[in-house]
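Q: How would the structure tokens look for this protein?
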Amino acid sequence: MQIKKIIILVLSFFFINTFVFANFEAEEKFVSNFADNAISILGNENLDINQKNLQFTDLVMSSIDMNLISKFVLSKYWNAASQEQRDVYVKAFEEYFISSYANKLDQYSGEKIVIVSSDAAKKFVIVKSNIVRDGADTLKIELDWRLLTRDGRTKIIDLSIEGISLIVAQREEFQSYLSNNNGNLDALINKLRSINNKN
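A: Here is the predicted structure in token form.
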């Protein structure tokens, strides 16, 4: 009887960990596919910068939980905002977010993403990877992806470069601006629109 219990425990442990591994494997595959698609766009010499911009925007918008990120970076000011302010802010933030990365598209020079490992972090999965470039100017940068799966859909909710969270850094920037402007969300929205119009 004791042996039977031990066998059941061992099998249960095996299946639980197989299930977890399968989840992590799926998250790693998601990151790998995203990176492959991004690299395919950036490295396609048949596309001009505008075409790359449009395709990269579509890829990002389909892979990132923009609504969650929008709320996170606004923090406590989200709850105080009217529905109209929220709608206008999210639209302005999306344009700002996309243009921030789209402006860097022409800086691509053959880098690749190599998946290193993955681990659970409460309800999230962290996929660790390296940005690498071989050759005379060897490059290796640590890039961690924070992923959230809800209703069967996996989305990117944060990126950390060399341990620095891009979303946390963005939130600190917005919070500082709002704090210095008496919490005026309309002022932040106008600032984002001004930046978007320059890009």
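The radius of gyration is 21 Å.

The first strand starts at residue 112 and ends at 121.

Upvote if useful.
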